[in-house]
Amino acid sequence: MRRLTSLREEVESWERLEQQVKEALELLDLAEMEEDEATIQAIAADAAALEQTITQRELQLALSGPYDRSGAILTIHAGEGGTEAQDWAEMLLRMYLRWAERRGFKATITDITPGEEAGIKTATVEIEGDWAYGLLKGEKGNHRLVRISPFDANARRHTSFAQVEVLPIFEDDIEIEIRPEDIRMDVFLAGGPGGQNVQKNATAVRLTHLPTGIVVSCQTERSQMQNRERAMRILRSRLYQMELEKREAEEAALRGTYVKPGFGSRIRNYVLHPYQMVKDERTGYETGNTTAVLDGDIDPFIDAWLKLQLGQAETAGVRA
Predict the structure, then answer these.
(1) Which of 208, 175, 204, 180 is nearest to 191 (CA)?
(2) Range of the domain at 34
(3) What is the pLDDT of residues 33-51, one digit of tens each?
(4) What gap in Å lies between CA 6 and CA 11, rounded to an integer?
(5) 276 three-class SS
(6) How far apart are CA 28 and CA 42, in angstroms?
(7) How much is the pLDDT for 9?
(8) Phi, psi values for residue 177, rounded to 5°
(9) Are 47 and 77 found together in one domain?
(10) Between the CA of residue 255 and those of 1, 242, 249, 263, what are the distances in Å?
(11) Whether residues 54 and 98 fall in one domain
């Protein structure tokens, strides 16, 4: 029923846009006949807004995956490099949290491991909102930072990497079998490296899926039961993603084609020195406003990736 409602809303929104375009064209014909310049200018302004709306709706055509409308589970891992990489991972975490805030999405940090000196080793965030997964799934991969290190007394340039993983949040009606005997649960004290955030009760939960070795943790909720429920949801998403990747690899082997591993691929460069630039390796889109990007303004990169996916799908359709 949710799927049916979603499809009905989508069709109705396109029909409303079509009606708005027809009414604008009719009004334009009348205005031109009467030489009403004020009305013509007003229609031109409305047309620009309609064009922008249509462009955004066309991008949604690239969001055709079965779970694109779902929320997203985003995990950031610091790469090799100690404090440098951990600081970069925290910068990425802030970027995505700010992006979610701009979009009006609800973002909840479900698990975070602080670095020894600064930054984070890893963090997992649940981002709830329509199309969150569809918009963020292109962020999966390695993100590379080049800058003058604030931790280097000699002010040398450093290159750091952080890895981003994106999974959909599955609803309870998605069937993924997890046998109770395959799960080992450990509990530990929740909180950060110290201070008021450290709890006295062991409410944080760590789940280990024994057949696959997948480990997930959650410490954001007040009760052990709530943390376990969130951790189970993340585990189900990881297991489903693992199965999808296995099937894709099998299909690629049958086709005799090589699929570049997404987990280790570098998707974007963030250069803060000797010049300012953020460039996507896949789409070629770039900007010199690095401050805005790191403050969450990543929609142009997301839109460029969606356009690329839409173009590839259309090309595939023509070839087929």
Answers:
(1) 204
(2) 2-62
(3) 888 888 888 888 888 888 8
(4) 9
(5) coil
(6) 10
(7) 74
(8) -80, 120
(9) no
(10) 36, 20, 10, 21
(11) no
